[in-house]
Automatic annotation (TrEMBL), chain A:
Keywords: ATP-binding, Nucleotide-binding, Transport. Pfam families: ABC_tran. This is ABC transporter ATP-binding protein. InterPro entries: AAA+_ATPase, ABC_transporter-like_ATP-bd, ABC_transpr_LolD-like, MacB-like_ATP-bd, P-loop_NTPase. The lineage of its organism: Bacteria, Bacillati, Actinomycetota, Actinomycetes, Micromonosporales. It comes from Paractinoplanes ovalisporus. Residues 8-245 form the ABC transporter domain.
Automatic annotation (TrEMBL), chain B:
Residues 17-233, 483-682 form the MacB-like periplasmic core domain. Belongs to the ABC-4 integral membrane protein family. Keywords: Cell membrane, Membrane, Transmembrane, Transmembrane helix. It comes from Paractinoplanes ovalisporus. It is found in: Cell membrane. Its main location: membrane. This is ABC transporter permease. It comes from the Bacteria.
Length: 252, 839
């Protein structure tokens, strides 16, 4: 079943929160394949299910129906321990809040996932990542001594260093000004192009999405659009078109 | 502001419960101690008052050492006092009576039966409320009446003969009657009362035939007792004391009261520690409250609340918590105090007084509960009022740094404290040790925030795994907060180490002395002295016979007693045979000559008292007039005997018992110890209170008494630990709440649940072990200084209780693990997604 091309796969995934009156179907039959070595962006209005989809793909949240695979591993029926091991070995995360440990230096934060997994870093690779994110002079600093953009670059390095099969980033530039944001996005793009890293990124920002190789549009828990190698203009057009569609649906 | 305060209170239930619990425990101990004391005292008073019902006014001699009339033997009064009193107008009748502690009957088994109260010898008199249940009153010198309770205890019946120890050695009496007191089997529950014929009583109990311990007055009809009391006092002068029946009862209740007050003192000591530990815990809880509420407080400030309002809102929260906790604590203390009183009363047979709300206990409990809480909350409240309005807009809370001023003050205090300890140790100044100990403690308390980080750095090597390393770093993340937790753990460990160090040194001194310096293979003493005030006694004739035994090289008896020497209360000793004692203890004169007729003082005592041979000292013993004694010899310090030694003849007239209470026996060369021991035991048949022991038994008995004290202190440690656990739990739970996002991230990037648990447990263990190590070091340090200072008081050996110290540290580590169990479980169970979203 599993194709060697897919870093992660969702097949007819349903996710329902709550029950009865308060029932919300966050995902309604989403089928999506994340290809290896590509930079995929997920866009959509607030509440459309972007974060939910990402959490389900990453094994952070259980689904109600369908299948999720990370690489060749099916997540269905995995215990908490197995899921943890899966995340530890195959998945990387970049959060909107940079989420660094204040007690550790930048370097220690970067090495944290490897330390937790008990793996020793590949020195050359580590050096390359550190140079790519441009943090060499800041390695001994603690997060409170770094700017927001620098902190997010530490978080990117933290996700990149273990070379996970796939990195999930939920609005990684949401808390950054446009210049720092551009730096982080360029970094993510570079890691895909040069190192063949697979990245899935949720974003609200058409400019951010234009760094990706592919943009998937969600609305109301369904995939409603899929663009390849988009530029900012195309993304904005698509968003406008989708908005008009949903307005039309609501008006009808 | 009140509504905002209440809302913030309710929204943090857990913290509320934890900080409240420490107040509850502290108040509970205070209340229990006070209620117990109140209840027992009222019970004893009631029991003795009913016993002294028949007494309206009473004349006694004023006790020569002053102070508590019950602690010293009665002053013998003679017939002239009775005559003088009867002549005072308003006196219907005056009757000489004898009542004194120290009449010990020997049971059928040859032993003195256990007593729950005093063992009293009295002169028989119907007027004292005694009724004969059986038999008749004692008339001849060798006849006695015993109380019904004692008859039941010993199984003696009218017509039996029994030995009785008084100020005289064992004499045989015929039991001619059994008495009850207003229907009760005992005059006072637990008391053993032996009634002698009136003339004999004075001789046996007071050492003077025809003397009385009191003159009881019947007040003539129509005369006011108070007026008469003054009149009689006027006639008799200051040498004698006139007291009412109630006052007499209260004095008689003294020994029972003092037992209850020593229990109360122990409990109050416990509550003191509970309060101290609780204070740190409360300070901790409220500083966390303030940290967590920083944003809310800043918002309040931004919306126009002034500093005073913010401070008051924190103090108001403290007030509400403390009032509620004090109510609960007091209620629990009331229950425990009553229960303890019933248990203790039950064992003595005294009926427990009815319930009464002890107002003093209530006031003190609430004062302690509310006062300590408010004082502990003051600093956090001040910090809260300093929150700047802009903090509402800031993202992260800056991590706190230990204050510079605080650290400097701490270091200075610590330095001064150590200096005082060293000086005190060198100069034998116990006062300096106390001051130094407190200064060192306060210094450490102030220094701890600055110590936390470097201290956790020291154990870097022990925490190699990532979870352990993160836990260690987390422990030092908030030095101020960690310090409060560390200190609350430190207090208990410090106290128990301090006491253990002193007692271990004392024990080691005793062991060494007995093993290396005591030239006596056998020691005669009582391993179970009763609760009365009369010391056990050894029949002098038995000692005399012992000296004639083949196999005995020397035997020396001795007694000691509190006395006033040149205006200062101290222990004085007396040896029944100076020559033999000198041989056994290797006494060597430095100046003057060792002899039986003058005072002997060892060198260091002489130095501290400023005495030289030929000096005259004024000595007031517990009996008799003050005497002037000349110093006849200064002898070199020995480890066996020392102090101010008065001639044996003085013990005969001035000590409570004219007989020795302990004795050393030295074996002749070639004698078999077991053989001599058997023969001595036989000789001691008439001295049933004492037994023959060998050196190791003496050491063991001593050790046992000390172990008991150590156990009591360890209970104290346990209480302190329980409260400290609350502090650790509080700190951990709140740190976890603060770090939910971090925990979520760690779980997301692949940290297993058990690793999360290990991280939290490490944080807890690091704090508790740091507390224990500080406590052990501080306790041992102050303990050693105290031991050095006690050198003159006879603790010559310095012994550090290493095994106990290790146990305390390990116990603290276990406490750390236990405290972390629930918080760690909670952290591990956090749903990863919720945690990630919480950021
Ligand atoms: N834990 C939850 N319980 C109940 N409903 C939830 C929960 N998490 C998400 N939802 C609902 O599921 C839907 C999808 O939420 P999701 O967070 O995936 O949206 P999103 O596209 O990431 O939105 P945003 O752009 O605002 O982050 C929303 O309607 C949300 O209210
Ligand atoms: Mg989202």
């Amino acid at each position: 079943m599993s194709s060697p091309e897919a870093a992660a796969r969702a097949v007819d995934v349903w996710k329902v929160y709550g029950s009865g009156e308060t029932e919300v179907a966050a995902l309604r039959g989403v089928t999506l394949t994340i290809e290896r070595g590509r930079f995929t962006a997920i866009m959509g209005p607030s509440g459309s299910g972007k974060s939910t989809l990402m959490h389900c793909l990453a094994g952070l949240d259980a689904i109600d129906k369908g299948e999720v695979h990370v690489g060749d591993a099916a997540l269905a029926g995995m215990s908490d321990k197995q899921l943890t091991a899966l995340r530890r070995d195959r998945v990387g995360f970049i959060f909107q809040q940079f989420n660094l440990l204040p007690t550790l230096t930048a370097e220690e934060n970067i090495l944290l996932p490897l330390n937790i997994a008990g793996r020793s870093p590949d020195r050359d690779w580590l050096d390359r990542i550190i140079d790519t994110v441009g943090l060499r002079p800041r390695l001994g600093h603690r997060p409170t001594e770094l700017s927001g953009g620098q902190q997010q670059r530490v978080a990117c390095a933290r996700a990149l260093v273990p070379r996970p099969q796939v990195i999930f980033a939920d609005e990684p530039t949401g808390n950054l000004d446009s210049q720092s944001g551009a730096g982080v996005l360029a970094l993510l793009q570079q890691s895909v192009r040069e190192f063949g890293q697979t990245i899935v990124m949720v974003t609200h920002d058409a400019r951010a999405a234009s760094y990706a190789d592919r943009v998937v549009f969600l609305a109301d828990g369904r995939i409603v659009g899929d663009l390849t190698d988009p530029d900012e203009g195309v993304v904005l057009d698509t968003i406008r078109k989708l908005d008009a569609d949903s307005a039309a649906v609501e008006a009808a | 502001m009140l509504r905002a305060t209440l809302k913030s209170l309710l929204s943090r239930k857990l913290r509320l419960v934890l900080s409240a619990l420490s107040i509850v425990l502290a108040v509970m101990f205070v209340a229990a101690a006070l209620v117990l004391q109140d209840t027992l005292n009222r019970s004893f008073d009631a029991a003795y008052r009913s016993a002294f019902d028949g007494v309206q006014l009473q004349v006694i001699g004023s006790s020569p050492l002053g102070g508590d009339a019950s602690a010293t033997p009665p002053v013998p009064l003679d017939e002239t006092v009775v005559t003088a009193v009867s002549k005072v107008p308003g006196v219907a009748a005056a009757r000489g009576e004898v009542r004194a502690d120290g009449a010990r009957i020997i049971g059928r088994d040859g032993k003195v039966p256990d007593a729950d109260g005093q063992r009293v010898g009295v002169s028989w008199s119907d007027a004292s409320g005694a009724t004969l249940k059986e038999g008749r009153a004692p008339a001849a010198a060798d006849e006695i009446v015993i109380n019904a309770g004692l008859a039941e205890k010993t199984g003696y019946r009218v017509g039996d003969t029994a030995g009785v120890l008084t100020t005289r050695p064992n004499q045989t009496f015929t039991i001619v009657g059994i008495a009850t007191y207003a229907g009760r089997d005992d005059l006072v529950n637990g008391e053993q009362t032996i009634s002698f014929a009136p003339r004999t009583a004075g001789e046996l109990m007071l050492g003077k035939a025809g003397s009385y311990s009191s003159v009881d007055i019947s007040v003539a009809a129509g005369t006011d007792t108070g007026t008469l009391k003054a009149d009689v006092q006027g006639v008799l002068g200051r040498e004698l004391v006139v007291r009412t029946g109630d006052e007499a009862a209260d004095d008689a209740a003294g020994p029972a009261r003092s037992t209850s007050s020593s229990i109360t003192r122990i409990l109050l000591g416990f509550s003191g520690v509970a309060v101290l530990v609780g204070a740190f815990l409360i300070a901790n809880a409220f500083s966390i409250v303030v940290t967590q509420r920083t944003k809310e407080l800043a918002l309040l400030r931004a919306l126009g609340a002034n500093r005073g309002q913010v401070r008051r809102s924190v103090l108001l929260e403290a007030l509400i918590v403390s009032v509620l906790s004090s109510i609960v604590g007091f209620a629990l203390g009331l229950l425990i105090g009553r229960a303890a009183a019933s248990a203790l009363g039950g064992s003595t047979g005294v009926p427990i007084a009815g319930f009464r709300l002890p107002v003093a206990a209530l006031l003190v409990s609430f004062l302690v509960g509310i006062g300590v809480t408010l004082i502990s909350a003051l600093v956090p409240a001040r910090r809260a009022s300093r929150v700047a309005p802009v903090a509402a807009m800031r993202q992260a809370l800056p991590t706190e740094r230990p204050g510079k001023v605080r650290t400097i003050v701490g270091a200075v205090l610590f330095g001064l404290g150590v200096a005082a300890l060293v000086a005190g140790a060198a100069g034998g100044a116990v006062g300096a040790i106390g001051v130094g100990g407190v200064a060192t403690f306060v210094g450490i308390v102030l220094l701890t925030p600055a110590l936390v980080r470097p201290a956790t750095g020291l154990i870097r090597g022990l925490t190699r795994s990532t979870p352990a390393r993160l836990g260690r770093l987390n422990a030092a993340r908030n030095p101020q907060r960690a310090a409060l937790t560390v200190v609350s753990l430190m207090i208990g460990v410090m106290l128990v180490t301090l006491v253990s160090t002193i007692l271990t040194s004392y024990r080691s001194t005793v062991t060494q002395t007995v093993q290396d310096n005591l030239n006596a293979e056998l020691i005669i003493y009582s391993s179970s002295a009763g609760p009365g005030t009369t010391p056990p006694s050894i029949d002098p004739s038995a000692l005399q016979k012992m000296r004639q035994e083949p196999g005995v090289a020397a035997a020396a008896g001795f007694s000691y007693e509190t006395a006033r020497v040149d205006g200062k209360d101290q222990l004085v000793y007396a040896w029944d045979d100076v020559d033999q004692m000198s041989r056994i203890a290797s006494v060597r004169a430095l100046s003057g000559t060792i002899g039986t007729d003058r005072v002997m003082v060892n060198e260091s005592t002489a130095k501290s008292m400023g005495l030289a041979v030929g000096d005259r000292t004024n000595v007031q013993l517990v009996r008799g007039p003050e005497v002037q004694l000349e110093v006849g010899a200064i002898f070199a310090d020995t480890r066996v005997v020392d102090g101010f030694v008065v001639p044996w003849s003085q013990a005969g007239t001035g000590f409570r018992s004219p007989q020795p209470s302990q004795a050393y026996v030295q074996l002749a060369d070639g004698a078999t110890q077991a053989d001599v021991r058997n023969r001595i035991s036989t000789l001691l048949a008439g001295s049933p209170e004492v037994d023959v022991h060998d050196r190791s038994e003496l050491i063991d008995d001593n050790a046992q008494a000390l172990n008991m004290i150590i156990s009591i202190v360890q209970v104290l440690l346990a209480i302190a630990m329980i409260i400290a656990i609350l502090g650790v739990v509080n700190t951990l739970v709140l740190s976890i709440l603060e770090r939910v996002g971090e925990l979520g991230m760690l779980r997301a990037v692949g940290m297993y649940r058990r690793e999360v648990r290990r991280m939290i447990v490490t944080e807890s263990v690091v704090m508790s072990v740091l507390g224990a190590v500080l406590g052990v070091v501080l306790g041992a340090g102050v303990g050693l200084a105290a031991v050095r200072a006690f050198n003159d008081q006879g603790i010559t050996d310095v012994a550090i209780p290493w095994p106990l110290m290790l146990v305390y540290v390990v116990a603290s580590a276990i406490v750390g693990v236990l405290a972390a169990l629930a918080p760690a479980g909670r952290a591990a169970k956090l749903d990863v997604l919720t945690a990630v979203r919480a950021v």
